[in-house]
Amino acid sequence: MKKLISIFLVATVIIGLVILGCSKRNTSTTPVEDTATNTPTVLSGTATNTPTVTRTSTITNTPTNTNTPGGPTATSTNTQSAPAGLIDDCEDGDNTNKWGGYWYTYSDAEGNGGSSWILPPSATFAMTSGGYSSSYAVRVSGQVKAGYNYPFAGVGTQFDANGGCPNCTKKDISSYTGVRFWIKGSLDATLNLHVILPYTGACGTTSCNSLSGYNDFRYTITSSVTSTWQQVQIPFSSFTNQGTWGTPPANIGIVKAAASELQFQIKGPDGYAGAGLNFDVWIDDLELY
Fold first, then answer.
1. What mean pLDDT value characterizes the chain?
2. Is the CB of residue 105 less than 8 Å from the CB of residue 155?
């Protein structure tokens, strides 16, 4: 009996020690839950606090890429298209107009025995800085002097690259109503400024032959030449012949159908015998309308 009791007591002690050991092992376990709960906080923060990933606007907002093909178009759109009749806005600074023709100067000293002079000469013609609300304009200056009974000087521009000798190419400008331009400058009191539409044929010695005996259709704009820029608009119907000499065509429509150039002529009084009459004329934005 005593033996059984001893065995029971030993077993009880052993079971108690086992239970106690298990209890101590559970209370000393490493707080894995804390590590687990801290880990998603860091991961979540990493995911939600990475705006450089979610805000890559440099990729979605790359207008330089999407607009590159349209770059030239945008430039062309922002640049005002030239009117169909624009002969020259003078902004290229050289002696060539937008129709391919050339600017030139002339005077009675060339073939007429006169002594009038004009600058710049045709050989070195170029635009002058300071146009009408722009960078460049035509500027001619000089003197109309004695020596030729009908003293003159002037500047002109051709309607075609081959408008002068030896080709004297013509252009039909019948669809246009008139001519307009901006002008300023100064003229001595007895000078007149005419806008002329010459009527010419084949090439002569140095210039296209006049078919009108120089009695060309013209319009006088003397009063429009002041110290400030003014726009002048002249319908071709207002152009008239100079006088009774020569053989002018019956109407200006004939000239418009085979036009080669447009001229601005500074004309002195017939028989002028003085020391010289001064002029300084600026012209810009020349066009047919």
1. 79
2. yes
